[in-house]
Amino acid sequence: MAALSSSVTSRSYRSGYSASFSPVKGNRHRSLSFLSASSPRGLDIHDLCVRFQSKSARASVFMQDGAIVTDSNPTENKSSLKGLKDEVLSVLSQDVAKVGAESDGQNKSTVSITVVGASGDLAKKKIFPALFALYYEGCLPEHFTIFGYSRSKMTDAELRNMVSRTLTCRIDKRANCGEKMEEFLKRCFYHSGQYDSQEHFTELDKKLKEHEGGRISNRLFYLSIPPNIFVDAVKCASTSASSVNGWTRVIVEKPFGRDSETSAALTKSLKQYLEEDQIFRIDHYLGKELVENLSVLRFSNLIFEPLWSRQYIRNVQFIFSEDFGTEGRGGYFDNYGIIRDIMQNHLLQILALFAMETPVSLDGEDIRNEKVKVLRSMRPIRVEDVVIGQYKSHTKGGVTYPAYTDDKTVPKGSLTPTFAAAALFIDNARWEGVPFLMKAGKALHTRSAEIRVQFRHVPGNLYNRNTVSNLDQATNELVIRVQPDEAIYLRINNKVPGLGMRLDRSNLNLLYSDRYSKEIPDAYERLLLDAIEGERRLFIRSDELDAAWSVFTPLIKEIEEKKRIPEYYPYGSRGPVGAHYLAAKHKVQWGDVSLDQ
């Protein structure tokens, strides 16, 4: 007796089985395979072959695993085997055609996106517009549904009306803007409920299933809610509204705790209900175009990578400034301050990307591994290497701007810093001794975010006499402007045209608005799309978060426990004078205050 074995990959159908028939090269036997989704041991195919057995006097034995055992005589068995193959495949094709017609579209997947905290400012101003932009660009799956979930009482129509006010179309595709908006809004629905109610999330689950229509359901929950209710919402979503046949992912907004201890406690609580690969900790600055381009600039351009070390770089500056104050947001801000709000996450994440070694690949885990190494190599920040400030009232042009403590949501006498500057150091072979300066503040003279790389002086420079007296202004500088007016430019020295020998500084400038006509996507668009696709490289891993907090927690505790008084600076100024002394202490000049910035 000879057995016909199965070795061919088969196409699956909703009926629960599939079949394939293929010759085995160099062997007179052929492979006939029956697969079952319902049983790991294979499909009972006895019923499928009743017709064939009734037509043939030769008995075939059907084994438990689906193999067919027949007489091994090739001459006598040839016609029987062919007949068996034709008959069984005929039965299968008829059954598959029938089931396929019944289940058209049922075996496809769908994505359900639930914005938890849908009535909040972040959802209205950023999340819904980003989702529409993805839909407008054709980046969302064919089948998707968006649900808003919050405590506010609202109908589907009221949600759509609220969302429609913040939607905009790409500049280069406005022709069908209204039509696209209507189509998008038809995919938006609303469910009202408490964030800690299993019952309300169960009701949401029923609505999601109705819209999913029996398809494979993938579910993404975006937690646009205060951090004190993260765990309650995750518990309810995980236990009452998770997908049963697809993936479930949760995007968590910062802040991820207030220090190492609270961050670790939050992570532990979240992992009671989710696996690490289900948690997407979002830092929207990592989704900005110029931040993502940072690695491209370094690793794909030969002129930069050899210079990316202490041998050629004198200092690196990460500068963040806003030209407005807390403006009614003081209650939230006062609980965190500028160090937690900007420096510990946005700027530190950019620093880790800037300073990391070349990853093994572009895989998310490989990139995050290298970032963690940088964070773990960082020297603890000393209080004497930090300057903190707070903006005070200032009158300019007949307009009086309020002090931080004039905000009604801020406690009187608050010492929370609205400005901070710090010098950080990485103790590894590449960066030892290079100061990484951070500066972040509110109510300053301008709004900007940029990375400035200042290179060392040219040793034995022949043209020192022909340059300006300040050698710092004669060094090369690479500037990556993250916002606004995204740009990359390199400052070089060159000769001024004429008969004399006079040098001048010029910029080799890549201004994105001039070079690229396409509008730059918002950071939330990129990050939402990555979460849907399961791409994690721009999200923060738990060990990465622990390492980041370990850099700043001792400093924060010392400032708060000793009630260190901030240096006051006028609203709309360049910040505290102490920041300039800090830079001078490390023989650095802030790049954003030079005369020809």
UniProtKB/TrEMBL annotation:
Keyword Ribonucleoprotein: no
Pathway: Carbohydrate degradation; pentose phosphate pathway; D-ribulose 5-phosphate from D-glucose 6-phosphate (oxidative stage): step 1/3
Enzyme class: oxidoreductase
All residue ranges annotated as the Glucose-6-phosphate dehydrogenase NAD-binding domain in the record: 115-293
Annotated keywords: Carbohydrate metabolism, Glucose metabolism, NADP, Oxidoreductase
Record's keyword annotation contains NADP: yes
Ranges for domain Glucose-6-phosphate dehydrogenase C-terminal: 296-590
InterPro entries: G6P_DH (IPR001282), G6P_DH_AS (IPR019796), G6P_DH_C (IPR022675), G6P_DH_NAD-bd (IPR022674), NAD(P)-bd_dom_sf (IPR036291)
Region (Disordered): 1-26
Catalytic activity entry: D-glucose 6-phosphate + NADP(+) = 6-phospho-D-glucono-1,5-lactone + NADPH + H(+)
Compositional bias per record (Low complexity), positions renumbered to this chain: 1-18
EC number: 1.1.1.49
Domain of life: Eukaryota
Job description of the protein: Catalyzes the rate-limiting step of the oxidative pentose-phosphate pathway, which represents a route for the dissimilation of carbohydrates besides glycolysis. The main function of this enzyme is to provide reducing power (NADPH) and pentose phosphates for fatty acid and nucleic acid synthesis which are involved in membrane synthesis and cell division.
Similarity field: Belongs to the glucose-6-phosphate dehydrogenase family.
UniProt cross-references to PANTHER family, sorted A to Z: GLUCOSE-6-PHOSPHATE 1-DEHYDROGENASE 2, CHLOROPLASTIC, GLUCOSE-6-PHOSPHATE 1-DEHYDROGENASE G6PD
Listed name of the protein: Glucose-6-phosphate 1-dehydrogenase
Species this chain originates from: Camelina sativa
Source taxonomy: Eukaryota, Viridiplantae, Streptophyta, Embryophyta, Tracheophyta
